[in-house]
Amino acid sequence: MKNSLGNPARGDAFYDRKKEIAKIYRVLEAGTSIYLSAPRRVGKTSILKHLEEFPKENFYFVYIITESIDSSNEFFKAIFEEIIKSDAIKKLEQISVAVKNVIVGLMGKVKSIYNVELRENGETDYYELLVELFSHLKPDYGKVVIMIDEFPQTIQNIMEKDGGPIAEAFIQKNRELRHHKYLQDKISFIYTGSVSLFPMVEKVTSLTSVNDLRTVEVNPLSKEDAADFIRQLMKNEDFSLNDELIDSLLSKVGWLIPFHLQLMQQEIIDVFESTGKEIDESGIDKAYDQIVHTRNKPQFEPYFGRLTKIFKGGEFNFVMEVLTFTAQNSTVDELVIADKGVKFNIADTKNTMSILEGDGYLFKTADGLYRYTSPILQLWCKKHICK
Amino acid sequence: MENKLYNPAGQPKDWLIENFVARTSVFKKIFKDLETGTMQYPEQNYLIQGQRGMGKTTLLLRLKYEIENTPELIKWMVPVFFNEESYDLTSLSNLWEKLLKYLDNLWQTGGMYYRETDKFVGTDDYEKRIFELLISILKSEQKKLVIFFDNFGQLFLDNLKEKEQRRLREVLMNCNDIRIVGASAIVLEDLYDYSKPFFEFFKIINLEGLNKDDTIQLIGKLQEGSEKKINIEKSKGKIETLGILTGGVIRTIMLIYEVILADEDGTALQNLEIILDRITPLYKHRIEDLPVQQRKIIDVIAKRWDAISTKEIAENIRENGKLMSTKLISAQLQQLEKNNILEKKHTNTKNHLYQLNERFFNIWYLMRNGDRMDRCRVMWLTKFLEAWYDGESIGNFIKKHIELLQSGKYYASSAIMIAEALTYSANVGFEDQATIIKATEVILNDDQKKLLPQVSLEKFNKARVLYNEEKYKEAIMLLESIDQTSGEANTLLFNSYFNLDKPAKAIEVLNDGNNLKPLLLGMAYLKLVEPQKAIKYLNASLDIDISGINIQKSQIASAIGIVYQTSIALNLKRAIKYHKLSIELGNEKGYYELANCYTKIGDFVNAEKEYLNGIEAGDTTLEKKLIDFYVFKGRQVEKALDLIEKTRFKYANDGDFLFYEGFSLFDNDNDGAEKVLFRAKDLLTKGNYGSRLLELAQIILASIYFNNKDKVKANAIFDELDSKDNPVVFLMKAIIKVWNNHFQESFSFINKYLEKSDLINFNINNEYLEKLIILLMAKKQYHFVAEIFEKGQRVNLKDQMKPIYYALMYNLKDKYPNEFLKMGEELIQPVDDVRRRIEEVATEYV
Description:
The complex is a heterodimer of chains A (387) and B (846).
Chain A: H1 18-29, E1 34-37, H2 44-53, E2 59-65, H3 72-85, H4 87-95, H5 97-109, E3 112-113, E4 116-117, H6 126-135, E5 143-149, H7 151-162, H8 164-179, E6 187-191, H9 197-204, E7 214-217, H10 223-234, H11 243-253, H12 258-275, H13 281-291, H14 297-305, H15 307-310, H16 313-329, E8 331-332, H17 334-343, H18 349-358, E9 362-364, E10 370-372, H19 375-385
Parallel strand pairs in A: 1-6, 1-7, 2-5, 5-6
Antiparallel strand pairs in A: 3-4, 8-10, 9-10
Helix pairs in contact in A: 3-6, 4-5, 7-8, 7-9, 10-11, 10-12, 11-13, 12-13, 16-19
Chain B: H1 2-6, H2 13-18, H3 24-36, E1 45-50, H4 56-68, H5 71-74, E2 77-82, H6 92-107, H7 112-116, H8 126-141, E3 144-149, H9 152-155, H10 162-174, E4 178-185, E5 202-206, H11 212-222, H12 236-246, H13 250-262, H14 267-289, H15 292-304, E6 308-309, H16 310-315, E7 318-319, E8 322-323, H17 326-338, E9 342-345, E10 353-356, H18 359-369, H19 379-388, H20 393-406, H21 412-423, H22 430-442, H23 446-451, H24 457-468, H25 472-480, H26 487-499, H27 503-509, H28 517-527, H29 531-541, H30 553-566, H31 572-584, H32 590-600, H33 604-616, H34 621-634, H35 637-651, H36 655-665, H37 670-686, H38 692-707, H39 711-720, H40 727-739, H41 743-756, H42 759-764, H43 766-778, H44 782-791, H45 797-800, H46 802-811, H47 817-821, H48 828-844
Parallel strand pairs in B: 1-4, 1-5, 2-3, 3-4
Antiparallel strand pairs in B: 6-10, 7-8, 9-10
Helix pairs in contact in B: 3-4, 6-8, 11-12, 11-13, 19-21, 20-22, 21-22, 24-25, 25-26, 26-27, 27-28, 28-29, 29-30, 30-31, 31-32, 32-33, 33-34, 34-35, 34-36, 35-36, 36-37, 36-38, 37-38, 38-39, 38-40, 39-40, 40-41, 40-43, 43-48, 44-46, 46-48
């Protein structure tokens, strides 16, 4: 298996996330749309890409990333165009001549043939076009699942560009679409993104606008899976790691998401190549220490860089102080959090802490203390962010 | 050469492949990934980072060529190389446009693909449309693009707007038709904001400087096919130095190799000028972006070339006439180090050294910002030349260089640079410098000649004559008009100031290139009475080559020893160490100081041994000194007399010698002592010694006459005794005055004595003081004695002379009735003894 560090894992670089995928299908089969929730770099996009490429029978997945989109119409246009281009539609066209005709008809409406759009007066309302397209699909063709990556980022973009009310309207429009009669039993959505959806929605409107979504969580790998994952990665290399070393590697990494395991494997190879020695316990230690070398900045910087997008002003300062405090002291308790809340004038520290928890930075232990979910992230913060 | 060094893209493909030696492992790694990646899914993109000249462009080209040379790959892969001058690539849509044009060109479509973009002009999603066009073309041609993008950071990434950045991420995440291998130069404080969304799709590869082995391999490759090869095995050390001095930057290593070893006509330096011009806007821009204080710091560090300490930086920066505080400088240094502009070199002490991280930037700085006054424009070249050639082999280089100049093909500007570099080198003597200047002049026109360093040989020689005539001021005037400051001229300038008693100024004029700098600094600090600094620099000068000057290392070691021995930096153990070193280095005169040190620490056994060693080594002056030692320190009168006997034939008329003899006899044979001492006194008086021994001889004689109650002789000798500060002399004078009943004069001497005396003096001179007091009491000067006791309270005189004190109180019991009653019973007898003695004295010394 190839180490696809940094990129979404595709093809044989994808480690089968059986549990998550089974759960996604269960929810989809019930006709519900999904919010796929996981901290960044846990493997959401890889799962979506995998669904798109290897769908279960009667399922058609369309993957769309809307990270750069900053208007509602542009958003629905992107969905429309991706659907038209998608393998899913090509397959549907093969099944049904009717579908093909519909598409040709719709294309006539936008006076565009694939890439070429001949503009008429006024803007095409892609929301309406989408609805029309969906209206022609029949439930027995199968189920079309539209997967929207970086959806929360799109909300943010719209909010920044056109303000809260427009962003709110955008969220409502999505809800409308999901509940449109022409979509029932035929079309489902999976939303995801590296920014948490619910806090983003809450910034502009109430959570009821998304309460129809069923949250599916992507969890870190189990210990067995993680060990298997490492073994698969090592197959391409000139050396292997015995079970004992893998064990110790896993306990160091702690938070067993594929990304951190990939990082670790990459560093192990680096240690092997630079020392020319068989990897032993000290080699694992060295690799672990190397992970937080500045050269991995592109991998870690976004963890903290993205916080500037989610939090502003005092709340951002509060978050950074909590994170650096926890990095240095390993835990942070309610009293310290309350104290820092007062310091930065944060009325509701609970909400902020729950974002940090939801986004995978910290977790709450049985005795009510917060800890870093990932020891690696803690180490990075300690080394590069703490003063 | 221009091609080779600064424009890899301009080199023939085969040549580049053939000469690609330095970055092989990273090349293999990336190529393996390119080769095995089928691009069915989006593949790993790369961003290669490193300073300018680290081999990024060459690596990109090498990868491109390897794809072109691999038939299975070239079937479906289209490698594209965008060079550093792709200034039109400032947005995503520019990139797609450029690629479409490239494909038009490659497949000779007559511009068909690019023309298709006309349709999209004016649309909101122009970028997206033409991207899709590009992808559809690639799909229909069944080709995939690999873009090798030089200067990817500055030319492209930095220009992307936020929305484009997110778009780029979308593209990188989804597109399996394009893959990017970018290279980006780190210039000064360039640090990317890695939290930008697209960075996680790039694997960042840092190209570090070449290590020793890489450098050796590179040099080996460079001289393949060359006739004059250097012996790599023998030159490993030098090559390593070259590697360190260049920071392992390939381009600089190659440049230096060319200049100092292989350049036939000055092309290398000629091309350096071209590239410096080309990068000037970039570097200038970076410098101007820095805060003013940091710029000042950079200026000092850059002009020094070698690593420099915070303190030295501070000494060279003034703000509104005040020196900048080291604290402030440290803070700025930290910032500059964090931003990768400076490199911190750790030392054993807390004082780390700093130098510019990018050595090529330092070269640029010197060449473009160093003026002739600083004499630092080509300092880097001087340093490289000095690192490679020692004092002897530089001669061969000069000879060869002159031959090349005579060939008539040498570039004028390069010739000037070499001439400058050589004339500023302390390794090149004035004669050689003059020869080079002359040979260079031949190929220059009149304007160019003005750029040459002045020929200064005549001036220097004249200055030397003036110096020898002790006309230091005139010598200085001449020397300061000399353009180059080689070791000799600089040393002469230093010595001139030094001899004018201006050591601080002498330090100021010292040049970094002066090999003797540590020694001269040491001398100057000696003169400034800054022993710690003097020791530091003198010690450093033990490691430098000082042949050809009038000072021996043994003398330096000895000087350090003496500083340790006599200054506030007192450390006798270290003094001993350096004196021993001095002796080892051949200083036959070193034994005396060594023995002296042992004496001072009370190790008389070793002291005596070293005196004897010294005498055996031929230093006969030690004989008298050993006698002195026996007499005063060793308390070995027998040995003293023995040695006196043995050496008498040499010193029959030597005052010192006779003094020792007299002194040795004193107490045992006072008559003999008197005779010898009297002769010694005469000789010492005539001998104009100003010797401490004369005074001692007089004091002892006075003491003998006093004890013999020979008033006439005593008066005569006491008249001779004269001192402004010796308490013993005051005391003796007081005694004789009392004896002569000149009480007022006596009182004034006693007061002088009390003023000068401290506890130690009191203890040592107790015997005479006691004599004086008893004599005073014999002459009934009780109140004055009471005053003496009063004044002597600070040294507990009462306690030291209890019986005398109570004898006094007995006499003054009317005035101090209670004092006498305090006397303890045990003192009754001693006090009685004192009173009896006073009565005796009263009759003896009428």
